């Protein structure tokens, strides 16, 4: 978990966080000097429920310290609970709606997220969503790789089709290789994956999606891509959770690229795009 409070001039506003024995969280702002600008930006990489509570407390502390006149922007690159964007089985919670309601507790000037899992997330939170094509364009190495005539963009499932087509149109890519997968709606487990292409000899396959958790989908796609004679396989995901580690891709995926939306541990196979959203000039 990482939370920073940035002043309009780029300086950081310091604070401390404490966890009490009973489980409660506590925040203490360290810098209470008058602000030169009414605008503050919170950049939050939230990876736990404690982190979510810390975020809510920090915004409240800023209000208490500087008054309602302060304008708070929030950059929340990875939107927690964004994958539970509907109820798929009786007895489940609509987790994303709960998350959106929590965010509404804060009084925000602007909320920004990156490559949100579905449009439902941006509708419920009213967030500005940074498109993955914009993130790709910020990184010359990835842009160059995708634009190489030997490279082909691989779309992992139907849910990623619109996302991949925007990337294709923005970067003017010639083709996309599509895949299909089936899930058990009750468990969420993948029962079948299929790459809809014939021979891909000599190509560099760039699989792209918004999130990688355990990586099972990409492992199965990579196995099929190898069977179709690809020369190299690269995985680009905006949000790298990598709950099973990167060793699960050994022998299958040559390089993994992600962003700094979540904290990452250095790894020989991993490249991280350091991206920050630039909020517009205050009016």
Order of helices and strands: EEEEHEHEHEHHEHEEEHEEE
The appropriate CATH architecture of the largest domain is 3-Layer(aba) Sandwich
Report strand %: 25-35%
* CATH fold category name of the largest domain: Rossmann fold
Are there runs of 5+ residues with pLDDT below 50, and where? none
Can you give the helix content as a percent range?
A: 25-40%
Biggest sheet statistics: 7 strands, mixed
The outline comes out as globular
* Rg result: 21 Å
| CATH top level class name of the largest domain | Alpha Beta
For the record, the count of structural domains works out to 2
Through-space gap between termini: 32 Å
Count of β-strands: 14
Number of helices: 7
In round numbers, the mean pLDDT is 94
Structural class, from secondary structure content? alpha/beta
**Order of strands across the widest beta sheet?**
10-9-8-11-12-13-14
């Amino acid at each position: 978990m990482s939370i920073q409070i940035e002043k309009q001039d780029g300086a950081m506003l310091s604070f401390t966080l404490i966890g009490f024995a009973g489980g409660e969280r506590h925040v203490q702002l360290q810098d209470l000097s008058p602000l030169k600008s009414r605008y503050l930006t919170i950049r939050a990489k939230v990876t736990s429920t404690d982190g979510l509570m810390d975020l809510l407390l920090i915004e409240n502390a800023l209000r208490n310290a500087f008054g309602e006149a302060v304008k708070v922007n929030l950059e929340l690159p990875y939107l927690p609970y964004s994958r539970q964007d509907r109820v798929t089985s009786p007895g489940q919670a609509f987790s994303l709606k709960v998350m959106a309601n929590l965010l509404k507790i804060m009084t925000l000037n602007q909320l920004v997220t990156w490559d949100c899992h579905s449009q439902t997330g941006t509708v419920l939170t009213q967030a500005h969503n940074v498109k993955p094509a914009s993130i790709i364009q910020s990184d010359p190495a990835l842009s160059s790789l995708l634009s190489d005539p030997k490279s082909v963009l691989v779309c992992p499932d139907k849910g990623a089709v619109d996302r991949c087509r925007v990337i294709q149109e923005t970067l003017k890519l010639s083709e996309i290789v599509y895949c299909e997968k089936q899930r058990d709606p009750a468990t969420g487990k993948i029962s079948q994956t299929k790459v809809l292409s014939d021979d891909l000899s000599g190509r560099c396959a760039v699989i792209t999606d918004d999130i990688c958790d355990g990586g099972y989908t990409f492992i199965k796609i990579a196995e099929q891509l190898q069977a179709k004679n690809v020369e190299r396989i690269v995985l680009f995901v905006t949000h790298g959770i990598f709950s099973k580690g990167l060793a699960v891709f050994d022998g299958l995926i040559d390089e993994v690229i992600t962003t700094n939306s979540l904290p990452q541990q250095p790894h020989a196979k991993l490249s991280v795009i350091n991206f920050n959203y630039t909020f517009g000039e205050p009016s």
